[in-house]
Design brief:
The complex is a heterodimer of chains A (164) and B (295). Chain A is α+β, with helices and mostly antiparallel strands. Chain A has five helices and five strands; from the N terminus they run E-E-H-E-E-E-H-H-H-H. Chain A has a five-stranded mixed β-sheet with strand order 2-1-5-3-4, with helices on both faces. The mean pLDDT of chain B is 95. The chains are: A alpha+beta (164), B alpha+beta (295).
Chain lengths: 164, 295
């Protein structure tokens, strides 16, 4: 076992991990943050996407030991003080989920995308989401939701993404 | 699907990493992990030893040199996409990054990893071949450079010895202004069925001074034919010349059938993409020349 530290959603954790443990499994099994989902475990489906030092990353392709010392944001870290993140709010309003399995990955990918692209076109949204698979919705409502989230953020109806 | 157990090392210096590599027979270098970890999760790879180089800050540089650029092996895709020196000196690299995987992949994957993995359908090996990059390769005993066209040997096989790793890349100064890359993938971010990249330098008389063409996804290594390129020197660029070039390359390549596309379809794609890459490169070469005259 190897000692590591992970700062997850602003909280620092000291952990002992086996080198072969994936970041996704450590988040789920050790920290009990089960919002991060594991779909394909080969970097294709995007369900396990988290923010690693502020950038989206596949937590199924990252060893927890490699992530030691990093800041990680999971889907549990999106809502602040009981207020949904604009992307979460918009997914709810636009019915952008059915079974919900892929949703955490979409939320993290979209939240990061909108930080850098406040006024995206639909085709840019589609490209940004191309690394996340959804087997239920047919994607239309997800694209709608990201468009709506962009509007919410621009109008400042809700709390802004980058408070830090 | 989880990786099998391995011995794990996290060296703090390159020397330490190379020493570990020389001591352990079945060791793999872990950089971004975007190819190695899926292979381990699927148990296609089960190295005894993993040497995690993510802490080696000495491999994260992007520097201008007398010869061109020196890029550390640990520079990640998103940095190649965004770094001002890359955008200015090798703009096609920044442009090609949009074609590589997805944002989450580009956050982690590295230039050294992409080249060492040697997937013939990946973009960076194609650009390395097009622009004759040199790969800086080190072992505990020595450092050497390998020209890109001697580095890729076959599918996922390179000229690296077991105790060697890629520590950096040198991109020679080259007229980059007239270059273009295009590819076809079924979904954005997928590996392309075929990739074509071209670069053109014009003479003052607007004939071709030099033309380069490289393809990905059509052979076991990135495809290029300098003898054929030489035959284009002095010719006047035109859509009909590009058609002839596309036709020639369609017949010169020998792609294989696989799950994703037939060999015939890949030939047709290659022909179309070569024409597009050359037309795009010419447009940019002309634009660069106009700007040069105005300056």
């Amino acid at each position: 076992m190897v000692p590591i530290t992970l700062t997850v959603n602003g909280v620092k954790h000291a952990l002992e991990v086996e080198p072969r443990w994936l970041l996704a499994d450590v988040l789920r099994d050790e920290l009990h943050l089960t919002g991060t989902h594991l779909g394909c475990e080969q970097g294709v489906c995007g369900a396990c996407t988290v923010l690693l030092d502020g950038r989206p990353a596949r937590s199924c392709l990252t060893l927890a030991v490699t992530a030691s010392g990093c800041e990680i944001t999971t889907v549990e870290g999106l809502a602040k003080d009981g207020v949904l993140h604009p992307v979460q709010e918009a997914f709810w309003q636009e019915h952008a989920l059915q079974c919900g399995f892929c949703t955490p990955g979409f939320l993290m990918t979209a939240a990061h995308f909108l930080e850098n692209n406040p006024n995206p076109t639909r085709s840019a949204i589609r490209e940004a989401l191309s690394g996340n698979l959804c087997r239920c919705t047919g994607y239309q409502h997800i694209v709608n939701a990201v468009e709506r989230a962009a509007t919410i953020i621009r109008e400042g109806d809700s709390h802004a993404i980058s408070q830090d | 699907m989880k990786p099998p157990a391995f011995q794990y090392y996290q060296p703090h210096t390159l020397d330490e990493a190379l020493q570990l590599l020389s001591e352990h027979g079945d060791a793999k270098i872990l950089a971004g992990g975007q190819s190695l970890i899926p292979m381990m999760n699927m148990r296609l790879a089960h190295p005894d030893v993993l040497i995690d180089i993510n802490g080696l800050t000495e491999l994260t540089h992007i520097k201008e040199t007398d010869q061109g650029l020196a890029i550390g092996a640990l520079v990640r895709h998103y940095q190649l996409e965004q770094h001002p020196l890359i955008q200015r000196k090798v703009p096609l690299v920044a442009e090609a990054e949009h074609l590589i995987g997805h944002p989450a992949i580009r956050s982690r994957g590295t230039i050294g990893g992409s080249l060492s993995h040697a997937d013939p359908a990946a973009e960076l090996p194609v650009l390395a071949t097009l622009f004759d990059w040199e790969l800086v390769v080190s072992s505990a005993a020595a450092e050497r450079t390998i020209p890109a066209r001697e580095f890729f040997l076959s599918y996922f096989i390179t000229a690296l010895a077991p105790d060697e790793m890629v520590t950096g890349v040198r991109t020679p100064s080259h007229a980059h202004a007239g270059a273009h890359i295009t590819e076809y993938a079924v979904r954005a971010g997928d590996f392309a069925l075929a990739i074509a990249a071209a670069s053109i330098v014009l003479n003052a008389s607007d004939t071709i001074q030099s033309a380069r063409i490289a393809l990905g996804g059509v052979a076991d290594i990135p495809w290029r034919d300098p003898d054929f390129e030489a035959s284009l020197q002095g010719q006047s660029p035109s859509p009909s010349l590009w058609r002839e070039v596309g036709q020639h390359i369609k017949e010169a390549i020998d792609p294989t059938d696989d799950l994703h596309a037939s060999a015939d379809y890949r030939r047709q794609l290659a022909q179309t993409l070569v024409e597009k890459a050359l037309a795009g490169a010419l447009e940019r070469a002309k634009l660069a020349e106009m700007k040069g005259r105005q300056a």
